Amino acid sequence: MPLFTYKLIDTHFVSGFGAHDLPSETEAQIEAIKLARSLRETRPELVGKGYSIFVIDDDGAAICVIPLDATL
User: Residue 52: which of 37, 69, 30, 38 has the closest Cα?
Assistant: First the structure.
């Protein structure tokens, strides 16, 4: 299974949220959406400041960017 890495970014790297073995890019995107939702609930001070969850695969290719401000 591919390894997908999750990062919190604004215009720069802010924090890592680990890496997960998942079967597909679609599953990686679903997990990023879940992480964004969780951060909106647990860290409301991040909302409205341009933060996003950035996902890359084990080759370093960008998979998706999920803004914390988005209503998903």
Answer: 69
- Look up tokens 């970014």; give the residue: 9
Q: Largest Cα–Cα distance in the chain?
A: 35
- Whose structure tokens read 């960017």? 65
Of the candidates 42, 36, 23, the residue with the CA atom closest to the CA atom of residue 64: 36
- The predicted-structure confidence for 45-70, as pLDDT tens digits, reads as follows 999 999 999 999 999 999 999 999 87
What is the value of pTM for the model shown? 0.88
Alpha carbon distance 65, 71 (integer Å): 14
